[in-house]
Amino acid sequence: MSDMTQIRTGRHCTFALHAHLVFVTKYRHKVFADRHLVRMEEIMRDVCADFECELVEFNGEKNHVHLLVNFPPKVALSKLVNSLKGVSSRRLRQEYPELVRHYWRAQRLWSGSYFAGSAGGAPLSIVRQYIEQQNRPL
After folding, report:
1. What is d(CA 4, CA 49) in angstroms, rounded to the nearest whole number?
2. At what angle do helices 77-95 and 34-50 cross, to 10 degrees?
3. How many structural domains are present in the chain?
4. Within a domain: residue 2?
5. Residue 69 maps to which CATH number?
6. What is the distance between the alpha carbons of residues 132 and 55, in angstroms, rounded to a whole number?
7. Could you read off the pLDDT of 17-76 as tens digits, one per residue?
């Protein structure tokens, strides 16, 4: 597990970007048992690796999951989210056929919406104060 303050470097930038993501099941159905969550974490780690991201933390309950993802600036968070939700839904459906009863009508495991929040770094008030205190050019 990486430290939240770890700074990564890309070809043309230095960055420390983290997002807290929350995905909720369609109609908030209570779908997941522990075995599903364990497998889902593995699937989501693989998807993150494909995007050159790191799944720093993962946890969930019967009807939702939380992810903390460290991602490079070249990654569009919406594309990462679509892949995480799509791949996990497809693989879980293939590997656990009993979940099909939760895929009512549209054959979707996840709600169409999600939560994404920035995480880590200094509080906004400290960042604002730091910027305000920088020397202004004459």
Report:
1. 18
2. 140
3. 1
4. no
5. 3.30.70.1290
6. 34
7. 999 999 999 889 899 999 999 999 999 999 999 999 999 999 999 999 999 999 999 999
